[in-house]
């Protein structure tokens, strides 16, 4: 895994580019990785790593729930940056 400062840069980019919302998710659940690519660092989440699936409510134009897969460390970086971004 990249170091914390690089992960925070990648999380900040994901927020600013619209790849990932900065608002709080409606649901977060985790388990062993299944090989899905992390939306933040663009690396697969291996079976020996913790994967979080993060669900966000849609809006008027896109109803439903959008779900993103991330490494645990990437989620922490995103959470720090999304809090910073909204303050």
Name its key features.
single chain; 87 residues; alpha+beta; first zn-finger domain of poly(adp-ribose) polymerase-1; 3 strands; 24% strand
Tell me what you see in this structure.
The protein is 32% helix and 24% strand. With 87 residues, the chain is of the alpha+beta class. The protein has one domain: first zn-finger domain of poly(adp-ribose) polymerase-1, CATH 3.30.1740. The protein has a 3-stranded antiparallel β-sheet. Helix 1 crosses helix 2. The mean pLDDT is 88.
Overall, the morphology is globular
H/E element string? HEEEH
CATH-scheme architecture: 2-Layer Sandwich
Total DSSP E strands? 3
* Domain module count: 1
- Category by helix and strand content: alpha+beta
Helical stretch count?
Answer: 2
Strand content: 15-25%
Q: Give the end-to-end Cα distance, rounded to a whole number of Å.
A: 28 Å
pLDDT < 50 runs, ≥5 residues: none
Overall mean confidence score, pLDDT: 88
The portion of residues assigned to helices is 25-40%
Summarize, please:
The chain has helices at 4-16, 72-86, and strands at 27-32, 50-57, 65-71.
Secondary-structure map with pairings?
Blueprint: H1 4-16, E1 27-32, E2 50-57, E3 65-71, H2 72-86
